[in-house]
Amino acid sequence: MTTEPATAHRRTPARATRLNRETVVNAALSFLDRAGWDALTINALAVELGTKGPSLYNHVDSLDDLRHEVRDRVLVEIVGMLHTVSSGRTSEDAILAMAGAYRSYAHHHPGRYAALTRMPFLDAVDRPTIDARELAKPATEVIGVYGLNEDTAFHAGVELWAAMHGFVMLEMTGFMAGIEMDPDAAFAEMVHRFASGLAERK
Asked: Taking the model in full, what pTM does it have?
């Protein structure tokens, strides 16, 4: 006579990961790495998480809210990375290390990097949504060793960011592939010229 196995020995289905704002944002970052910025929607992310779109609204207010949160997380990642790679380095060595890490991040995480170009840094009434000076700290701390005052170092840090971002965007949009130029050498030369000019800005 066949008997049913005891209930205590039956396997119970694994529960889905409990969702909160952090897990949703983390999933969005991973989604961007795989599918890119334009593919990120509430419904697409819900499928990734094994749930339905409406359930995500318990954790984010809207797609824009999610995208702003993702953008802020990307900034935190980049700033933390720049602090790490510049630690123990000084002057041009630190600047070159930061620039190289920034460019590498953009190339390895194009979906995440797109958040910096697709989400505005101002709110609906044109108030900044970020602390620019806080974000520039890794650069201004390194640039400060050249004897520049705080404001001048901050301005120089913004210039460095603009140069790196502009170069990266030329690469990511395919411009650099259409010209006879070694992008690695060109990027290194650009950063070297920037660093060399800092001593003249006192």
From this structure: 0.85
